[in-house]
Amino acid sequence: MQESHWDTIIIGAGSAGCALAARLSADPCRRVLLLEAGPSEVDLRLRIPAGEVVGHPRFDWRFRTEPEPQLNHRRINWPRGKVLGGSSAINGLLAIRGQAEDYDGWREQGCIGWAWSDVLPYFIRLENYERGASDLHGADGPLPLSLARRRSFVCDLYRDAAMELGIPPTEDFNGPTQAGSGFHNVNISRGLIPTRVSAAAAYLKKARSFRNLSIVTRALVQRIELDAHRATGVLYMIGDVLHRATATRQIILAAGAIGSPHLLQLSGIGDGHLLRKLGVRVALDLPAVGRNLQDHLQTTSTYRLKFPTFTDRIQTVYNKIATAFEGLIMRTGPYYGACHFGFFACVDGGTRPDMQFHVRPAAGSFIQPHALSGLSISACQLRPESRGRIQLASPDPQIPPKICANYLSTEVDQHLVVAGLRLLRRLSRTAALSRHVAREVQPGPDVQSDEQLLAYARQESSTTYHPVGTCRMGSDGHSVVDPRLRVRGIQGLYVADASIMPTLISGNTHLPSVMIGEKASDMIVEDEKELESAVAVIIS
Questions:
Q1: By the 8 A CB rule, do 32 and 212 touch?
Q2: What pLDDT band is residue 367 in, cutting at 50, 70 and 90?
Q3: Residue 65 · residue 76 · CB < 8 Å
C-alpha cells in the first residue's frame, strides 16, 4: 500500500470540486490532494461545444435508475461525467443560476448564510461575463459566460409565438427576472477557436502549476477512514494498487448527488439498518444520507415543419463539415450545442416561472435525430415535489448504488407535466407557428385528455440530468450537513456539491454547483480560523 499525507483531500473533480481545489490550493501553505475517478480531459471531443460524449464509457458513469413505478417501470439512463470537470465536461453548457426565491427558500428552511443575498457575490465571483460587470454579473472570474448566437428562423418563430401567449423576450435568464424567452448564456470560450469550458478548464488551468496541489485521476475511492468520529483519511485504488491518503485538516466530498451519498454509505455513514444488512460496519447511523433525491423530468413534443431544419442538415458529411465551419468561423449554429434557445414560464397561475422549455431545432435528440424535417421542444417542471433516494447496493465500491428517482409520485407533479404539454400545444397553434407546422408527431393528435397526456409523459419522459439533494443541508437533526456543510456527527468531513441542496433550484445545476464550491472554500477557511482563535484563547 502506498501512503501520502495532506492537509486537505477533495474527492471528486466536478463543478464544485474544481472550484474548491483551485481556491484552497491558492494558499501555498496548504497541501491539497484532488482525487478524480475518471481520466484527464485531454480528449478533443471534450473541448468541442457540441461534442457527443454522453454515453461513452470512458467519460460517463452511465448510471441507470431502478424501474420507475410512475414511468411504466422503465429504467431511465442517468449520464454523469466521469472525467476531470465531472458533468460540466459533457453537459449542455447552459449557465443558469435559478431564481432568487430558491435560495431565500433555503434560508427559510434554516440554511443560514444561503439566502440570495449571500450567494449572489459568489455567482459574480465565478463569472467572466461577455457583456461585462454589473450589479448582477462579474467579468473577472474563471468561468466564461458567453452569449449563444444561434439566430435561427425556428428560434425567431418561438420567440414570436411565446409573445402571443404573454411570454416576453428577455436578454438574460440570470437577470432581474427569469421569466421570458431568449438565448442562454453558455460556458464557451471567446478565443480564436470557441471551445467548451468545463470546471476543470476554468479552475485547474492555473492551479495545476501550484506545487502544493496534486491532481490524481483514475482514482476510485473505496471509503473514507474514520478514527472514532473524525475523518482521517481516504483509501483509493489506481488500477490494482491500493493507496492511503491522510488529511490533517479536512476531507471534502464533492462527488455529486450520486457519488457523495454512495461514499458516505460505503464508509459506514448512513441508514444503520441498511448498512448492517449489507455487511457494512456502521460508524454513524444517519438515515438521511441518500434521501431527498430530486431531479428535473422533461417531456418532449415533436413537430414536423414545412421547411428544412437541422435534422436535414446533418444527413450528409458535407453539411456536417459546413456546420462545423459555421461554428468555428461565423460563431453561430449547432456547433454551440443543442438547446441554446428556450423560455421560462408559469403554467399554473402566478408570476414565478414553474416550467422551463428547451427548443431544439431538430426532431428528436441531436444524438438520435428523427428522420424528418422537424423540431422538438421539451417541458421541464422546475420545482418537483417527488422525492427519491440513492441506496447502497453492495459494499463493493465498483458496484453502483440503486437510484430510485420516484418521478411523478405526487399529484402536483402529474398536473404540471400535463400543463406543460398543453402549453406547447398552444404555442404550435399561435399565428407565428401554425402556418409552419405540418403536424404534431408526438404526443400526436389522438392524445387529447389529461389522462392521455399523462400516460404519454409516463412512457416518454426522461431526466434533464439535474440530480440534487441526497446529502441535504439544514439546521434540523435530520439533515446530513449543517449550513457550514459539515457532516453531522463527524469531525473534519464536509460535503460540497449539488447533493447538499435542500430543494432543487429552478434551472440547470452546473452554475449553482460551482457557486457551492466557491462558497464552501471560504467557509472552510473561516472555520479553520475560528478554530485557531478558540485554541489560542484556551492556551492563553
A1: yes
A2: very low
A3: yes
Active centre residues (catalytic): 466
Per-residue pLDDT reduced to its tens digit, 10-20: 999 999 999 99
Q: Which three cell numbers stand for residue 177?
A: 427576472
CA proximity to 420, closest of 496, 348, 351, 340:
348
Alpha carbon distance 333, 146 (integer Å): 14
Among 151-155, 175-179, 374-378, the least confident range: 151-155
Nearest to 8 by CA among 331, 332, 292, 231: 231
393-400 LR contacts (CB < 8 Å, sep 24+): 393/278, 394/278, 395/266, 395/278, 395/279, 395/280, 397/220, 397/221, 397/222, 397/223, 397/237, 397/266, 398/220, 400/61, 400/63, 400/258, 400/262
* Half-sphere exposure for 72 (CA within 13 Å, toward CB): 9
All three cell numbers of 284: 454513524
**CA nearest 337: which of 21, 83, 92, 31?**
92
Say whether 412 sits in a helix, a strand or coil: helix
Task: Among 3.40.50.150, 3.20.20.70, 3.30.410.40, 3.30.750.24, name the CATH number for the domain at 149-183+297-381+408-460.
Answer: 3.30.410.40
**Domain 1-54+79-146+193-291+467-540: CATH superfamily, name plus number:** FAD/NAD(P)-binding domain (3.50.50.60)
Q: Does residue 443 have a cis peptide bond before it, meaning omega lies within 30 degrees of 0? A: yes
Cα 346 to Cα 367: distance, rounded to the nearest angstrom? 30
For 45-77, what is each residue's pLDDT tens digit? 888 877 678 889 999 999 999 999 999 999 999
Grid-cell match 492537509, residue found:
7
Give, rounded to a whole angstrom, the gap between the first and last alpha carbons of the chain: 42
Query: What single letter denotes the amino acid at residue 88?
Result: S
| DSSP string covering 339-385 | --EEEEE-SSSSSS--EEEEEESSSB-SSSB-SSSEEEEEEEESS--
Q: Is 139 helix (H, G, I), strand (E, B) or coil?
A: coil
Domain boundaries, the chain: 1-54+79-146+193-291+467-540, 149-183+297-381+408-460
526 burial level (CB within 10 Å; 0-12, 13-18, 19+): exposed
Question: By the 8 A CB rule, do 413 and 407 touch?
Answer: yes
d(CA 16, CA 19): 5
